[in-house]
Fold each of these.
Amino acid sequence: MGITIVGLGPGHGRYLTREAWDVLTNASEILLRTARHPTVADLPASVTTRSFDHIYDTTERFEDVYATIVNTIIEQTATGEVIYAVPGHPLMGESTVTALLAKAKEVNLPVRIVDGISFVEPMITAVSLDALDGLQIFDAIDIAARQYPPLDPDTPALIGQVYNKLLASELKLVLMMAYPEEHPVKLVHAAGTEQEIIEEMPLYEMDRSLHIDHLTSMFVPPLPRPSSLNVLADTVAVLRSPGGCPWDQEQTPQSMRQGFLEEFGEVLAALDADDPENLREELGDLLYHI
């Protein structure tokens, strides 16, 4: 008695691992989080499948959907081993899996994870990106629920599960708090399949795509010039390092008092002149002092 969670890969049967294929072939029944995934068509024909799509169709909140799926799986272990299959990798954007692992631990049920290829691999191929180049990975739902994006705009980002236009619109508005509306982004639909479509567009147009569905992900390249607080902190650290600027190395909070007053006065002057460009520059100088 226990649970085996199988990753189905990003969207095509050829991405199933050998281990996943062996588990699925020998299963008497496979519980699918969703049957709306291209890999399902490539599952062994001899295996019975049952999906939880009807729960998505009849339940308003995702939290309730996930809880129902988890409870159903736990209950079914009373009759034997359960094979539960999810898109991609089981631990990449799969809320039911993390909830299931926690619940299984509570009731002392063994769980086996069978790895699968996530959406990340075909996405980095689609946009020709080295994932070790500071890649950030986020869920569109999590970002859209915020007022300001938790991204570092100086490094590339992949955003998964951009599953409909409404979410894309909400996501766009949050991203535009940190990126210019003309910032170029890419929407990748059905990454890694024969139906893959890559669209490049300015950020403000992303929710106008005609191809957005449950297999849509987004690539956000870094801003053209460094703009994050991390870069500012690194610049200050270099200036104050042993090989940096002698003047910066000598400064103390007391020695910078006059500079604070001068920069603050220049900020006020820019405000009084209603000069946004100069205000940006003066605020930068003041932030550097801080």
Note: The mean pLDDT is 92.
Amino acid sequence: MGDDAHTSNSEVGEGLTISVSTAFYPGAAVDPLPPDLILASADSVFFYVHSNRLLRCSQNGFNASLPIPLTEMYTGDCPILAATETSTVLNIVLHAIYDLPFEQYSPTSECLVGAVQSLHKYGAVLKQLVVPSTPLYQHLMSVAPLNPIDIYTIAAQFELEELAVATSSHLLSFSLSSISDEMAIRMGPLYLKRLFFLHLGRLDALKRILLPPPPPHPPTNACNFADQKQMVRVWALAVAYLAWDARPDLPITTIKQTLNPLIEKLPCNVCRSSLFDRTKNMIIQWSRVKNTI
């Protein structure tokens, strides 16, 4: 059916073909015991699994669907349980439950978010399954740079602190005005506030860093206090430009590209050195400003 779930076709009876997961098939070495349950995805892919593994991971009887009543339909010795997830999402859900790597599937951010939501629905303890040591966490982080708001939203929704903090560093360029009402509700007031404070805090820090001008140097024959006003004007011009373009993700390269050409035009070597040192110090300070919630 779907390549993401890695399925194969098997014939059952006369003329009947079913799609079976190549990760969770009857002879798969995912558990010492043989499978005792078939999960059928919404797109009709069969996953042969172990009810004890699902129940061990669940706090709600796998969404109140296990154990299977005796009246359920059976195929051989395994009852069939219909799942609402597509095979791509269900595949990731089961890999997370069995703690199996799944980099070969290259799941999209949409698939990963759907898997987290389904794991929650099935009563899994997300704070145990979505931690830095697990494949699911690592894959969520791998897609975070491309789709950070969706990863941050799902992390906030289920209070996955480590994932939310790590993902927030990719949201410095995100326009907060584009957060929808639905996103805000799912984030909740705490994580929404923390994201706003991250942006506001970095902007305030940037303005504080930019404000102090370079200190004047002792007057020389070539450059007295009056001459040094040119350095102050250069600094004020650069600061005004940077402040006008101030944003939480202001690149260090922008600071350098703004100030370095102005530094080179100063006629006084001491002024140039002073302005260079001030710029270097400003860049160091900006690089140290907290960039996560």
Note: The radius of gyration is 29 Å.
Amino acid sequence: SDIGNYSCTYEMFGQTTRVGPDEHFQDIKRAISAIAGNAWRITVVMPLLYASRQHKRKGRESLDCAIALQELERMGVSGVITFDAHDPRVQNAIPLTGFENLNATYEIIEKLVHLGVGLDSSEMVVISPDTGAMDRAVYYGDVLGLDVGLFYKQRSYETSGGKNPIVQHHYIGPDLAGRGVLVVDDMIASGDSVLSLARELKRRGATDIYVCVTFALFTEGVSHVQKAFEAGLIKSILATNLTYIPPTLRECEWFEEVDMSGTLASVVDRLNRAESLSSMFDATERIHGLLKDRRAVPN
């Protein structure tokens, strides 16, 4: 189920209303309830994990993601399969229920290769936009043989428009002057943070900036990203189709869709055959094979 698919609508009180994540999650529970305990096994495939950014408590906050997972467990769900969970540690909420967190790293790198992006260590650096994405950046750097840099976002404790604005970026890593950049993260929400980061990268001399994410939500539209592209701030944004991509985003020349339909089909096929998903967790060998094939192709 795609809990981010706001293209779904329904009529109520004479108005057309878009289906939000809460309603999508309720539909999942309705489907499980309708099974009435007659299934041999129930596995929920939820590429964009419900409430995945509401995963930890710093004050009087709800723990929506953990509570949702526990609800599914109580309803008899034996396993949850998701992609690039914002914080995989949320699976600790259901320690006795299967929780598989897959990644789109291979498919994203395959897309970069298809686009002809230079992935030589002399001309490209992998950047983690914050400390939370560092493991992901280190993996990209390792399999691609690239240097890795880290930005730490210093945020204001004062909220503005429901957000904690970024006050300053602190950078740790190699010199970026004259080199391209791969920014890797799990998702883009509004897009403000990644554009702020792109300005910092340009200020440090970076050339082409590619942003690679699993989910591109653009909760405030794409007009500000379009302006950034026209100003030469970013080269391209790559994101999967694991959640809904509106036509307005697909039409943008800076947006590159990473198709995950084959991977999802493979997951469902293996579940139906009661086969292991283990080989899908580590894409290192496949990535090395992809890069080897690319080097073997003459320019």
Note: The chain is about 30% helix and 25% strand.
